[in-house]
User: Fold this.
Amino acid sequence: MNRRTFFQHAATAALAPVLIDGYGATAFGSALPTRPSPFMQALLEVADQTDRVLVVIQLQGGNDGLNTVIPLDQMSVYTASTFRGNIAIPEAKVLKMNKYAQTGLHPAMTGFQQLFNAGKLSIVQGVSYPSPNFSHFRASDIWMTAVDSDKTLTSGWAGRYLDKRFPNYPENFPTAAMPDPPAIQIGAVTATSLLGPINSMAVVLSDPDTFARLVGDKPNDPKGIDGSSYAGKQIDFIRQQQVSSVSYAGQIKAAADKGKNSITYPTSNPLADQLKIIARLISGGLQTKLYYVTVGGFDTHASQVDATSTSTGTHANLLRQLSDAVFSFQNDLAQLKLEDRVVGMTFSEFGRRAISNGSLGTDHGTSAPMFIFGTAVKTQMVGQNPNLRDLDNNNLKMQTDFRQVYAAILEDWFGASVATETSVLTRDFPVAPVFRVTQLVTGTEPTAEPTATLYPNPASGAVMLESDWLEPGVKSVQVFDMQGRQLSIYAAQPTARQLRFDVSNLPMGTYIVRVETGTGLLTKRLAVVR
Amino acid sequence: MALLDAYTQPLSAAQVGHLLRRATFGPAFGQIKSFTGQTAAQLVQKLLADQPLPAAPLDLTTGQTFHDHPFSMVDAGKKEYYLKAWWVGLMLNQPASILEKMTLFWSNHFVTNANTVNDYRFIYRYNNLLRQYALGNFRAFVVAISQDPAMLQFLNSNQNVVGKPNENYARELQELFTVGRNGGYTEEDVRTAARALTGWTDTGYRNQTSSDISGFFRPGQHDTGDKTFSAAYQNTTIKGQSGADAGLNELRTLVDMLLTNPETPRYICRKLYRWFVNAEIPATIETNVIQPLADQFRAGNFEIKPVLATLLQSQHFYDTALQGAVIKSPLDLVVGTLRFWGTTAPDASKNLTGFYQLTGYLYNRCKEQQQDVLDPPTVFGWTAYYQTGYYQQWINASTLGLRGYFGDQLTTNGVKLNGKLAIDILALVKTLPDPSDPAKLMADLTMPMLAVSLTPAQTDFLIDTVLLNNLPRYEWGVEWNEYTQSPNDAAKKQAVQMKLTGLMQYIFRMAEYQVG
Assistant:
């Protein structure tokens, strides 16, 4: 870090969140947080930045969330022939999870079941965004660029973040502090998520074969034109050179040579092949912060399940591939003593229609669960099972905006400041409490905050919270029902001392609103009427 | 059937692409379309047609020409840069003509470089001389280049005086410019030729008060003795002359003598062959292509055009085995990539800033990829045309990285033209016959873009993995039709645009894209 960037960090730290990582959550749960000095904050941010890694797994095609994470509390609706009886997983086969009897996993996901029960997997329920789009390309772009669905951007959320962390990459890199690429993607085309404002922030290894050739293993790629022709000779020569032209080839090879895998990964599992490389590179000391892999085939319009058994077939194979690969990866990291440094996140451009179609498949839908894996997760179930009786054009309603999950990654995992998070996501999003302990709030009346007013109350749509405490910034907005379950709502801050949110999606009832601000914690009781 | 016999069939799209990749800095998509079905003779005639000399480069700050002003010490670096960018602009904007490709050929043959000559006005004049003679008469060309001020500076002819000869130019004139190393001439021939060339010098070099520059002859510095050569030149004697015309007369006689050496036309034809066709010249090509071309060159009094016409119309030139045999030079790659999409630099007289923004950007990319126009690394030219491995000299880990990075930048935000991306992928794809079918889209796009055909497995990979990221193929049609039904919907447009961008970035990095 040079002097200038240090002061930049110091400057942003004045607005920085208190919660720089999972530890902060404890402070939040117990008492008003103490604020480190800006200087300390900058040091903490820097220290925090050194070694944390994010692995993003894109499930290309739109994963059917309802057959992935199954609402055991609503099986009669779920299995009804008018709902998705032709593809529904029988209750007896659904994998159970500790402490969450109402929610289960697809029978192929034994690996995820073990991870969940070991406290290393978090499920964020009902993730989407307002006015969802049903086009693969457009929806992927929305997820990757992190814009509202009526806006467009050409850079990606992770690219923008890495660009802030490593400004002027690639021109002014490598440096002593960052000798390695900020991001590595295994895939043919750079994912939009990794595009910075001008440049891609990632080095792309086109496939595991490229990696194999790079590190001197035997590749297995089918190639083009006859190698004995004039053109063929030139093309062969260029291919040879291409291997070493992968940016940072030397660094990647050195890390791969030094790194190792401690377990055997499943074979015939393309995702496992990719994660295996990543574990090897992390263990070899590569300083790369973000790895990005893709697994395709989730566009299951037809034959998503076998006609003879709904728990086998295309979707089951895809989920097994995911679950087995991640399970192996997490075990590998554990044995390598690296698991506290790495979290992974899955996403898909959309979920699928709640009501199945007549071809044993599902059409494009909206919200779906996201998985976050790693030892850093604190809240294992963010949100609740989708309400199958409360659909929107046969689609599941949104509980959490995907950008709240990104905000959690940025602030709570990477330790980015609110200012950075706000800039990366184009505005501030409340942090999904994946890496925080959510305190179960019971029906007891919270202590009144004379400094805040909430109106209208009772409410049915827009609600405004006004308080001077909001001025230093809002860190999270949470709404709990009287059973202590957290519900996600959509919030915006129209002025510095106002927070507006929308309760029109909430059922009638009484709720506790908790807003964490730079000054302290505001809690208010709110009645929703219809 | 002789290899140089004319290929008379109408050309296929692939053949048109091949011809234009070799004879120009690359075909525009539209050119391939409109030229397909014409014969090689028709197209070669078009390529060889005389072109007007281009307007001189302008200074970005003043908007004025600078080659005709006194030398500016302060701005020399800038002006040299304008000059180089200007030339890249000519290559980019030129219609279907061989002229700039040949001008570049000659700058790699009669080498000087801006770095050594160090007067941008000299270099401009030199470059224009190359262009003027590029398709003319080789004999007249050698005589002219020998009097060119930049050449006089570069190979020290201006220091070659009676009694104290400087042999540099006399040596390269034989070794590199005419006879070649296999011509059998002796060291004594080098010294003798130097004597014939005594007395020439240049004027106006880096002169900050005068814009006059020229090469001229000083009779007093000339060696007036007879010059007798070895058996390599049939023991020819050039009669020593004195007086104002002595220099030119002896120069002409010397050039005539050099061109009488049977190796001279072969040497030039080999170079043309390596420039336009293939680096490898096995014995059968030497016998059946080089020698007949050399015979034609000599019989036609060293006129350049007829030889080019024969070569570019020949059956041999259209042999499919030769497609993709050349690795694109940085200029072929950088300029050619923009030409394919129909991108041209703005008219310098109307939008000078825009002109240099684009041409300067392209120049810098070529330079970093190891082809600095007007600055070939040595008097031999670029290694890709003479050293073992030939075109492979262009390729190493860093240049490949830069080549790929250039493609990335073109398709993202690296270079803009009037606020828009320099290449408009969507606009071109819309003109294809059926862009909603990913297989047809891929065939219609890759055929003109690439010099070699892809295998079915490669095409499938491009469609399924690169374009569609493993979605079913029909999803492309759905997305494309969504876009064409609401072309002004930014989100729908971006949905297909980003996929096509990814596809292009991938293709730009393919080994197949590096050959021409």
Residues 1-40, 440-449 of chain A have pLDDT under 50 and may be disordered. The longest strand of chain A covers residues 509-517. The radius of gyration of chain A is 23 Å. The first helix of chain A runs from residue 3 to 13.
